[in-house]
Amino acid sequence: MNWFKFKRSSLSKIIFLSIFSAASASLTACGGGGGGGGDDGVSIDIRKTGDIFTGEQFEITSNKGAEVDTITSKYGTVTPADDQKSYWNYTFNIDLFKNRDLKFPITETFTVTTSDGTTHSRDYEIPLLDPLIKYQWYIYNNGDNGYQNLGLALAPKKGIDLNLIEAWNQTDSDGNKITGKGVTAMVVDEAVDLTHENIKDNIKNISIPLSKYQKVINSGLSLVKVIMNSDSLHGSAVTGIFAGTGKNNKGMRGEAYGAAVVSYDYFANADYFPAVAAAVKDLNLINLSIGANHQYSFSENSQMVMDILYENSVPIITSAGNKFEENDFDTKCEEYGTTCAYNQNFDEKYHRNGIKVSSVNSLGERSFYSSVGTNVWISGLGGDQGYDNSSSSSHALVSNLSSYQCLDYAWYIPAYDYYANLWDLYGSPWYEHEDPNYTCLYTSKMNATSAATPTISGIVSLMKQMNKKLTVPQIKYILAKTARNDKTFSTMSVGRVTGKDVDNNNIVLNNGWIDKNNGLRYSEWYGFGLADAGEAVKLAQNCDSDEYCKKREKTESGFIQSETTSCVATAGSKYECTLSNFYSYAENEDADDLANGTPFNGTMEIESVSLINDEFKFTSGSSSKDYCTFNTAEQLNQDNVNKTSIKDLSKYFMPLNNLQLELQSPAQVRSIVKPYYSHWAPYTSNKNNTFSNKIMLETNSFYLDEISGGEWKLTVTSACKIDSKAMNRFKVRIYGYTN
Question: What is the C-alpha separation between 383 and 369, in angstroms, rounded?
């Protein structure tokens, strides 16, 4: 098990903050005398600092008192707060953020007109309640975001953000601004640093019935663990992105800065997770920025818990993975620009309750590491590596890091007079501009699908505040419907990719963007596109007015599954299968027993599709290829193999690497469920480390399509021959809404 954070040359840094007092602060004058004054003796001071991002008022005063007739401003409005005009309310015009033209710091011009008719102008830097928000391009991307201060080579692309300011400025039914207020999220990850200044106030204390579970809930993070490996700060950085405290004059701002957080230490005991998740009262969502590489597992118990969470409207927001370019098995994935690792690898990754997140960088492109596939639902913003002293560096994400000082856990290397085990590179521009004292409270280096995932969790938290009744199908629909695709951002364009298999036969490796019902588009790289917080929160409020959203106020009552599979071998290392005769089953009914089902003769609007095979295996000695001379799962169980070694496992997994599963609906929509040249290892990691032949793979390519019976086609391209009985065990399971 590992984090889906792209591994950098570990070094870290934090930021030393200049803090404005919330009670009283003088505006920093860009011209004129000190204290906000000028040579003519007129000054303006802040009595209370407001928030330019949410329209929260500033209170300002002038030393001229009652002599002031009016005060105007370039970027906002100023109105007297009392009849005596002893102080004034200044409100920044948040509409000015829409075009992404404002740069930080923002210099405001106030014009004071006194009773004698004279005017006095003052230019001031508007203070930010979260000093590091200027770097948070994923909140507001103005095409700069201090990239030069961070030592980056490439400026961000203006407008590539999550449109969060628009979301924050909407109000719920109680008149509260949308901040995630009243929403509880669980972070399943490394334990969160509970004493960090920018998260401690958002931690929710809970009690779990069984005391043994308490050790994994809000357990905190020890210095010893950080010294051993600073990657243990991963959970703290994840939490900062979507739920870091906001408007507190400290560091950065979380997307849902009003949400409550429960920390679950997955690495203390992963086995407790399903039970704990089901037991937490008033839980609204789960963030899971972790995954398993080079393995696959299927657990009936985990699937049951996932079903419970699904029925209780608790989505799991989970990362797609970071294996696009990690060609561990020397396949042609890099040559054709397809994903090198297939990450539908454990229960939360292929259950329909999981919202799988891929990553886009600050340039509006797929992040180079981001795993892809037809199980991806939505794209968040995970950035790239941040500062690495290269000519192609671009933003990672700024987030919380540690309440421990850098040098408390850094490893000193005398030969190089250098400190390792830090996130931000020792001596990097981040320390120079933001953390000269090496406090390491914050980092500019959080990245990967680990970071993209909480950017979606933040949006879901805001949606949940607006509409607490949202079901998981409604949440997924809203994210899909409001996402921005290649029609909005041309940088997200991706076309159809063709290539050759190992036997030199033509093969389609990527279908590019495909049009869907209701104006949606879908891509294996980006899912339905880059999320839009502002539009998602709007639709969450108006869900009942949208036909598709309203329909999803209840989860599906059951599913249909094909009963008959007929496969034949064709030319070009392919098998063509027909899947037909669908039966309808209630939720949790055993679809292996036809007596539980009834023939399906109606029409259904598709919610999710899974390809299932509970006995998949190759035929031993089926080819002249060395790696086709055994059955993958069976021989791995028999041989004395180091099952954690890529080198030892390589030959065993080649049959699965050189395998493609492509599904086609009766409407001729095609989905590459498992792509060729993409590494995949279907084995479980249970206590006996045994291997399984059962697979269940999800595809979102058919979302919202209508079906009314008919035949589905499965094309299997394989370098090795597949057992004939196994081929005929393929089934299609479809969840949806019957008409």
Answer: 10
Q: Which CATH code for domain 132-404+440-497+528-533? A: 3.40.50.200
The pLDDT tens digits for 626-654 are 677 554 455 555 555 555 555 555 566 77
Q: Would the CATH topology of 132-404+440-497+528-533 be identical to that of 556-738?
A: no
Q: For residue 81, what are the contacts with CB-CB under 8 A and spacing of at least 6? A: 59, 87, 88, 89
Listed in sequence order, the residues at least 6 apart from 309 whose beta carbon sits closer than 8 Å to its beta carbon are 277, 278, 286, 315, 316, 353
How confident is residue 75, by pLDDT bands cut at 50, 70 and 90?
A: very high
Q: Give the list of residues 6+ apart from residue 104 with CB closer than 8 angstroms, or none.
A: 128, 134, 142, 145, 146
Cβ(534)–Cβ(553) below 8 Å: no
Select from 1.10.1760, 3.30.450, 2.40.128, 2.60.40 the CATH code of 28-128: 2.60.40
439 vs 697: CA distance, rounded Å: 45
Q: With CA atoms as reference, report the closest residue to 286 among 27, 512, 475.
A: 475
Q: What is the pLDDT of residue 637?
A: 57
Q: What count of Cα atoms within 13 Å lies in the side-chain half-sphere of residue 165? A: 25
List, in order, residues 6 or more apart from 696 with CB less than 8 Å away.
Answer: 298, 350, 610, 611, 612
Contact indicator for 707, 685 with CB cutoff of 8 Å: no
**For the CA atoms of the chain, what is the radius of gyration?**
28
Amino acid letter for position 552:
R
Averaging pLDDT over each range in 66-70, 86-90, 214-218, 535-539, which range is the top one? 535-539
In terms of pLDDT, which residue wins out, 297 or 606? 606
Please provide residue 60's backbone torsions phi and psi, each rounded to the nearest 5 degrees. Answer: -125, 155
User: Rounded CA gap, 96 and 126, in Å?
Assistant: 14
Q: Is the pLDDT of residue 573 over 90?
A: no
Q: Give yes or no for a contact between 186 and 286, defined as CB atoms under 8 angstroms apart.
A: yes
- Could you report the per-residue pLDDT of 174-188, keeping only the tens digit for each? 999 999 999 999 999
- Note whether 526 and 364 are within 8 A (CB): no
* Model confidence band, residue 259 (pLDDT cutoffs 50, 70, 90): very high
d(CA 463, CA 470): 8
Q: Which of 43-47, 552-556, 712-716 has the lowest mean pLDDT?
A: 43-47
**140 confidence band (pLDDT: 50, 70, 90):** very high
Closest to 707 measured CA to CA, from 674, 654, 647, 663:
663
Q: Are strands 184-189 and 285-288 parallel, antiparallel or unpaired?
A: parallel
Tell which residue, 55, 94, 460, 452, has the closest CA to residue 256.
460
The two tokens of residue 221 are: 């993070």
Secondary structure class of 683 (helix, strand, coil) = strand
Written as one letter, the residue type at 499 is G
Nearest to 162, CA basis, from 454, 394, 423: 454
The CATH number of 556-738 is which of 3.30.1490.20, 2.60.120.260, 3.40.190.10, 3.90.180.10?
Answer: 2.60.120.260
